[in-house]
Amino acid sequence: MIPRPGRALATAALAVLLVGCGGGQGDGDAAPGRAAPATATATAAPPEQAPAKSVRPLARSVPVGLRIPAIGVDTPVMDLGLAADGTVEVPPVTDDDRAGWYRHSPTPGQTGPSVLLGHVTVGRYGDGVFRHLARLHRGDRIETRLRNGTAAEFTVTAVRTVEKADFPTDDVYGDVAGPELRLITCGGPRDGQEYRDNVVVFAELSATKGA
């Protein structure tokens, strides 16, 4: 299950809901995009930030690929929107697991927090694309490839594992002064088919290519 902002990045509302994270190991996995409201809690302190570099933001262009060398991720990126019930979509639970970009957030390299989601496990198919996300460290690089042929490179500033009940909504989805990236998956111990925690990676734009 991955918290999402409802219409936060489109309307500035910051309601917290939970959606399926592909954590189950059998056919009884929660369907992607289904959720029940959760009570918002006090937001944790903002993550420690690395010294900002002056990198010019990119024009809007949809992400089509994501590469994280430190954990061996090189994945296509699909678009995610809102399901009929108002919860955010998540990538489908299949053997061809991919990351997904929440299309109501900025595209990578634009000013604001661009949000990408991925599974830690994908039901009976095993490991998900973000299975090692929690192993990232400050200073690791993340590259997003964009549809217009440019690329936005980010540097990790913080990696946080938080209980879902204490999800730092404002830190993840709130306004920021420059281009930033958020990668979100599940983590921590499991309670039945659900993971207790979320892993959230915070990163800032550090370079652009082909711009």
TrEMBL record:
Region (Disordered): 26-56
The keyword Hydrolase is assigned to this record: yes
Record Pfam families: Sortase (PF04203)
Biased amino acid composition, Low complexity: 28-52
Alphabetized InterPro entries for the sequence: Sortase (IPR005754), Sortase_dom-sf (IPR023365), Sortase_F (IPR042001)
Entry annotated with the keyword Translocase: no
UniProt keyword annotations, A-Z: Hydrolase
Domain of life: Bacteria
Name of the protein: Class F sortase
Natural source organism: Streptomyces violaceorubidus
The organism's taxonomic lineage, starting at the top: Bacteria, Bacillati, Actinomycetota, Actinomycetes, Kitasatosporales
